[in-house]
Write a structure and sequence with these properties.
By secondary structure, the chain is α+β, with helices and mostly antiparallel strands. It is built from 15 helices and eleven strands. Strands 5, 6, 7, 8 and 11 form a five-stranded antiparallel beta sheet that branches. A four-stranded antiparallel beta sheet has the order 2-3-1-4. The chain has a two-stranded antiparallel sheet with strand order 9-10. Bound molecules: delta-meso nitroheme (N7H).
Length: about 500
C-alpha cells in the first residue's frame, strides 16, 4: 500500500453509512422513479438530512460493542435505523447532475445492458428478470433507497423499519415520486442466523479499508480507500475516479475478453467521497444444490458436507478448509470441520480468516475453482496478491425469501413466491468494471482462471450450462447445473452527503 494511502484521512461524516456496514437484521430496498427534475431535487433535498453517514454508523457500532462487552448484551437497549440513497445514471441525469457524461461506460449502460459481458444468459438473462427489473420498467428506476433497522421484539418486529419506510413514502407522495418496487431482506432465523440459504456462514471476509474499517487486526492487509471511494489514493497511489486512473488490469488467460475497462475521463468533483453500488437479486435453488452434493458425493467417496465445502472453500460453520495460521494441532481442515474440535476457529476473529492458498497450489484442500478462491484468490500466484488487491469489493448482501422446507422439489420454470429465496447481493467499489464485473467475469465465469481447466465458480458463474468444476484428486470434472439464478439487478452511484445537497441545489 502506498504511503499516501496510509496517510489518508477519510471524510467519514460525508460518506454514506453503508460503506462502513449497516450490519442490521432487517433491510428494505425501495426502487424509485422521479417524474421530473424539479420534484426529484425537492425530494432529495428533504431526504438528505436523514441519510446516515459512515461516522454515524461507526459511532453506533462502537457504542453497541462497548455496551455488549460490559453487559454481555446490548440489543435490548440499543437500536438504530439507517437510510441511504443511490442513483442510476438515468436518475443522475434527471436530477441535472453536472458532467454526468464523465461517468464510466459500465455505470452508464447499467447491469441489464452488460448481461452478455457478465454472463447473465439463459435463465439468468434479463428477459426472465422480475419487477422492477423487467423492461421497460427497469429504465424508469432512478434511485434506490436502502433502509436498515434493528428488529424489535414481539409482533411489532419491523416497527423501526416501517417507521423509516413511512417517512420515505410520505416524501415520495409529497414530491410525485413513484415507489416502483420494494424488496425485503433479513437475516435467517434461529441457528441459521448469519448463514445464507445453502447453509454457509456468510459475511466473514471483508477488506479492511485504511481510515474507515481498518483495525489492529487487519492493519497489515487493509486496502487503500481509493479502491472503494472516489477521490482517494488507490492501491497504486492513483486517485480513484481521476483522469489518471489506470485501466483495469487483465490477469485472465491471454486473449480472454474480460470486461472492457473504459477510459476514465475523470469524474466530476462532486463525485468525491462517493462509491458505485452493484445490486443483484440472486435466487438460490436450495433443493437442486442439496441434491447435487448428495448425488455426487457418494461416488466421489466424500460426504455431502465435504463436497459442499469443497465447492465453497469453507465449511458451513464458516471454518476455512485451508490451514489456519496460529491454530496448533488442528485436524486436517479439508477432511472435517476443524471448528468442531476447536470452536475458537469460528468464534475468534483472529482465526476465521487467517489463511491463504500459498501451500495449496494444486488445490488439494481448496479446489482452485472453489467460490471463495475464485472470488478473492488472496496470495495465490497467478494472479498474485498485488493484482488480487486491485479487485476487492465491499459485500453488503442479505438473504431474502422464506426458509427452505425439507422435501421441496428443485425449481421448475415458474417459481412461486412461497419458494423464491436467495441473496440480495450488494457490493461497493470505486469502479464497477474493476470490481464486481471483473470478479464475476474474468475470475468466476472463466474456466481457465486461475489455471487452465480449473472450471467455473460453482456458486456464481452464470455464463454456461452445465458448468465444469475440477476437483483435484478425481479423474472427471464435475458437471454442475446452475443453482444461483440472476433475477434482476442494477448499477447505482452513492453520492456523499454534501453531494446530495449539491445535486438538490444546482
Ligand atoms: Fe460470495 N455462498 O454461500 O456460497 N460467498 N456468494 N459472492 N463471496 C462468500 O467470506 C455466496 C457472490 C464473494 O475474501 C462466502 O464472507 C452465495 C457474488 C467474495 O475469501 C460464502 C452467493 C460475488 C467473497 C459465499 C454469493 C461474491 C465471498 C464465505 C449468491 C461477486 C470473499 C463467507 C447467492 C461477484 C472471499 C465470507 C474471501 C464469500 C456464498 C454471491 C463474491 C459462503 C450463496 C455475486 C469476494
Amino acid at each position: 500500500m502506498s504511503t499516501a494511502a496510509a496517510d489518508t484521512r477519510l471524510a467519514t461524516a460525508e460518506i454514506q453509512g453503508n460503506l462502513a456496514g449497516f450490519n442490521k437484521d432487517l433491510q428494505r430496498f425501495l426502487f424509485l422513479s422521479f417524474s421530473d427534475g424539479a420534484s426529484a431535487k425537492a425530494f432529495v433535498a428533504e431526504l438528505a438530512p436523514e441519510i446516515a453517514s459512515a461516522r454515524d454508523v461507526r459511532s453506533f457500532n462502537a457504542l453497541y460493542k462497548a455496551i455488549r462487552k460490559r453487559r454481555g448484551h446490548a440489543a435490548d437497549i440499543l437500536k438504530a435505523a439507517w437510510t441511504n440513497i443511490a442513483f442510476t445514471f438515468e436518475g443522475l441525469n434527471l436530477l441535472g447532475a453536472p458532467d454526468c457524461a464523465n461517468f464510466p461506460e459500465d455505470f452508464r449502460a447499467g447491469m441489464s445492458a452488460r448481461a452478455e459481458l457478465i454472463g447473465d444468459r439463459d435463465d439468468s438473462a434479463p428477459e426472465g428478470w422480475v419487477p422492477p427489473f423487467t423492461a421497460p420498467l427497469v429504465q424508469a428506476i432512478h434511485a434506490l433507497v436502502l433502509l436498515a433497522a434493528d428488529p424489535v421484539d414481539g409482533p411489532q418486529r419491523t416497527v423501526l423499519l416501517d417507521h423509516i419506510t413511512e417517512r420515505v413514502s410520505q416524501l415520495s407522495q409529497q414530491h410525485g415520486v413513484s415507489v416502483l418496487s420494494q424488496l425485503d431482506g433479513s437475516v435467517r432465523p434461529g441457528a441459521a442466523r448469519g448463514h445464507e440459504h445453502f447453509g454457509f456462514k456468510d459475511g466473514i471476509s471483508q477488506p479492511g479499508i485504511v481510515g474507515l474499517t481498518e483495525s489492529a487486526k487487519n492493519r497489515a492487509t487493509s486496502i487503500a480507500p481509493g479502491e472503494f471511494l472516489i477521490g482517494y489514493p488507490d492501491q497504486d497511489g492513483q486517485t480513484s475516479g481521476g483522469p489518471t486512473n489506470p485501466p483495469a488490469p487483465q490477469p485472465g488467460p491471454p486473449g480472454y475478453p474480460g470486461p472492457a475497462p473504459a477510459p476514465t475521463p475523470g469524474l466530476p468533483a462532486w463525485a468525491t467521497d462517493g462509491s458505485f453500488l452493484v445490486f443483484r437479486r440472486l435466487r438460490q435453488d436450495v433443493a437442486a444444490f442439496s441434491q447435487f452434493v448428495t448425488d455426487q458425493s457418494g461416488a466421489l467417496g466424500l460426504t455431502g458436507d465435504q463436497l459442499g465445502a469443497k465447492l465453497v472453500g469453507r465449511w458451513k460453520s464458516g471454518a476455512p478448509m485451508e490451514r489456519i495460521h496460529g491454530v496448533p494441532q488442528q485436524p486436517d481442515g479439508s477432511v472435517e470441520d476443524p471448528s468442531a474440535a476447536h470452536p475458537q476457529i469460528v468464534e475468534d476473529e483472529r482465526f476465521i480468516n487467517a489463511f491463504d492458498y500459498g501451500d495449496d497450489q494444486d488445490g488439494a484442500r481448496v479446489p482452485r475453482a472453489a467460490h471463495i478462491r475464485k472470488a478473492y484468490p488472496r496470495a495465490e500466484d497467478p494472479p498474485g496478491d498485488a493484482v488480487a488487491d486491485r479487485h476487492r469489493i465491499l459485500r453488503r448482501g442479505v438473504p431474502y425469501g422464506p426458509e427452505f422446507a425439507p422435501g421441496e422439489a428443485p425449481y421448475g420454470q415458474v417459481v412461486p413466491d412461497t419458494q423464491d429465496r436467495g441473496l440480495l447481493f450488494l457490493c461497493y467499489q470505486a469502479s464497477i468494471s474493476k470490481g464486481f464485473e471483473f470478479v464475476q467475469q474474468t475470475w468466476a465465469n472463466t474456466p481457465d482462471f486461475p489455471q487452465s481447466g480449473d472450471g467455473r465458480d460453482p456458486i456464481i458463474s452464470q455464463d454456461a450450462q452445465p458448468r465444469e468444476f475440477n476437483l483435484p484428486g478425481h479423474e472427471t470434472h464435475l458437471q454442475m447445473n446452475r443453482w444461483v439464478q440472476t433475477t434482476g439487478g442494477g448499477y447505482f452511484f452513492t453520492p456523499s452527503l454534501p453531494a446530495l445537497q449539491h445535486l438538490a441545489d444546482t
